[in-house]
Write a structure and sequence with these properties.
Elements: H1 2-21, E1 34-38, E2 41-45, H2 47-60, H3 66-80, E3 89-91
Antiparallel strand pairs: 1-2, 2-3
Length: 92
């Protein structure tokens, strides 16, 4: 039964990220990515970066909740499926 809940939280995270992040590249989502300019470069911190940092913080403080990890991993997998997910630094 527990594995079914873990899978359900993964799918839920995937779906929520799909809804919240925008359905296409440069699409307006409910939760925008962090974007800023620094000199001649534009930085785009995608959702997956922040979510991965959140997981690392939870691991460092030894927080054990497989449902939360499954949910966050589902969101990360969805964020990585966007074609520009690795385009973090670009020239202006």
């Amino acid at each position: 039964m527990e594995i079914i809940l873990v899978i359900a939280f993964f799918v839920l995270g995937f779906i929520i990220d799909y809804i919240a992040s925008g359905k296409r590249v440069n699409g307006k989502g409910i939760i925008p990515s962090l974007k800023f300019n620094l000199g001649k470069f534009k930085f785009h911190i995608h959702h997956w970066v922040g979510l991965l940092l959140l997981i690392l913080i939870f691991l460092l403080i030894n927080y054990q909740n497989y449902y939360l990890y499954s949910f966050l991993i589902g969101m990360i997998i969805r964020s990585l499926s966007v074609p520009d997910s690795f385009r973090i630094i670009t020239k202006i």
